[in-house]
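A.,

Following up on our hallway conversation. Structure tokens first:
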């Protein structure tokens, strides 16, 4: 982050330059000297700021989908928000989570590799308590999951991964599938310790219980689709081609739509007084002659020019001109 000087610091700097305490030439030399920035190869920066912004947008949608899903499943107040998206080594992520937690290890075809959805014990046990009829309070002591509790956890988080599929749909159509549920981070080694991961941290509140849900995405897993996380992919619309079957169904549905077609014989302007005094048998003079051309409108748009006539003793019109877009109506006097 760029440091911004306060007004007092600016005044002090100008005063030092004026009094000779600081030499302007020395400052210029320091500025022109080559700056060296330290780089930690153990914390390789694989994700650009553009990638992290895209991941933030994707998982803000994921957080909204999760909020809706868990609110419906738990039937209580649930609020989930993205608080941070960062990149760090996988080993650092493992050391930062509790020794006893809920780790949902899953795959997301067509991506190759495994991802992890880590749920803080307070959040996971509050969900479990709510699903089993409790008030949704976090336990005072965290213990290992029973077989029944494990099955319940696997079921609710397996369906929660459908929200991840929906959030990523604009980038790639993934098929998340829960592979295993672990409680000890030491037994989970999905990539090498130095592999860079994107860590999406979601603050979660269930009733009065708060905690974190962390989504760990190894760089090696999403490396094939990294170009799709650029701004160009988000803001440049690509032409979508329809399958022949889809095009045929669309044409069939449109062809069955009913439209109102009106052939105008003419128009006239009369006063309100004349209108109120109209009687049966009165004649209204039109602006257009009866044998002149008729305007044919589809809805309220002029589409055709036609001539009046009869077919088998019934009134009819014969279309002899198609009106192009932007052509104004022309009345024959």
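Then the amino acids I'd put at each of the 333 positions:
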């Amino acid at each position: 982050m760029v440091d911004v000087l306060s007004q007092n610091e600016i005044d002090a700097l100008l005063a030092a330059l004026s009094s000779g305490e600081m030499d302007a030439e020395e400052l210029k030399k320091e500025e022109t000297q080559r700056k060296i920035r330290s780089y930690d190869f153990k914390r390789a920066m694989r994700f650009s700021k553009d990638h992290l912004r895209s991941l933030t947008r994707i998982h803000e949608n994921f957080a909204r989908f999760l909020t809706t899903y868990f609110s419906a499943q738990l039937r209580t107040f649930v609020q989930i928000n993205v608080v941070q998206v960062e990149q760090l080594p996988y080993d650092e992520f493992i050391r930062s989570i509790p020794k006893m937690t809920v780790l949902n290890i899953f795959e997301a075809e067509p991506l190759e590799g495994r991802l992890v959805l880590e749920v803080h014990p307070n959040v996971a046990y509050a969900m479990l308590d709510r699903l089993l009829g409790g008030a949704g309070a976090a336990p005072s002591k965290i213990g290992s999951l029973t077989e029944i509790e494990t099955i319940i956890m696997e079921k609710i988080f397996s369906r929660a991964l459908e929200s991840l599929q929906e959030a990523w749909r604009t980038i790639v159509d993934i098929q998340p599938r829960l592979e295993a549920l672990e409680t000890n981070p030491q037994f989970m080694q999905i990539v090498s310790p130095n592999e860079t991961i994107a860590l999406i941290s979601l603050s979660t509140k269930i009733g009065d219980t708060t905690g974190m849900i962390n989504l760990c995405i190894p760089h090696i897993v999403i490396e094939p689709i990294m170009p799709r996380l650029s701004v160009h992919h988000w803001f440049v619309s690509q032409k979508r081609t329809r399958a022949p079957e889809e095009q045929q169904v669309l044409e069939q549905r449109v062809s069955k739509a009913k439209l109102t077609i009106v052939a105008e014989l003419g128009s006239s302007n009369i006063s309100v007084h004349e209108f109120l005094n109209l009687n049966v048998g009165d004649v209204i003079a039109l602006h257009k002659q009866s044998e002149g051309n008729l305007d044919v409108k589809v809805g309220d748009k002029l589409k055709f020019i036609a001539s009046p006539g009869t077919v088998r003793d019934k009134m009819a019109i014969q279309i002899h001109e198609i009106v192009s877009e932007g052509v104004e109506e022309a009345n024959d006097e």
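Residues 49-74 form the longest helix (26 residues). Curious whether your intuition agrees with the design.

B.
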